[in-house]
Amino acid sequence: QVQLVESGGGLVQPGGSLRLSCQASGNIFGIVTMDWYRQAPGKQRELVGYITHDGRTNYAASVQGRFTISTDNAKNAVYLQMNSLRPEDTAVYYCHIQTADSNLSEYWGQGTQVTVAS
Questions:
Q1: Which residues lie across from 114 on neighbouring strands?
Q2: How far, in Å, CA of 85 to CA of 114, rounded?
Q3: Contacts of 44 (CB under 8 A, 6+ apart)
Q4: 29-80 pLDDT per residue, tens
Q5: N or C: which end of the chain has fewer CB within 10 A?
Q6: Contact 25, 76 (CB under 8 A)
Q7: Reduced 3-state DSSP string for the chain
């Protein structure tokens, strides 16, 4: 059974940094992308960015230049380095894995809260 567990969220002042981690366990085949989403109160879940199986990244315009996604394939982990945080980055952050297996399986973590406030 596949599980994704996020960690690293918390309270940070504007301009600060946080690094989120997502550790995957279980057998995952045919990973296409490892993604980070976020959902702020009263808003829809939105894609923050993703990294492909071959290391290409793409980011939402709102986080471009401030956030960086990386992976440790040996550990089956994906990270989100967040710098220059703003109050509008406050949200629950979720990691997500999309596969190209026979079921086009996808997996979600439980989310971790990030609050940016002074």
A1: 10, 91
A2: 10
A3: none
A4: 889 999 999 999 999 999 999 999 999 999 999 999 999 999 987 878 999 9
A5: N
A6: yes
A7: CCEEEEECCEEECCCCCEEEEEEEECCCCCEEEEEEEEECCCCCCEEEEEEECCCCEEECCCCCCCEEEEEEHHHCEEEEEECCCCHHHCEEEEEEEEECCCCCCEEECCCEEEEECC
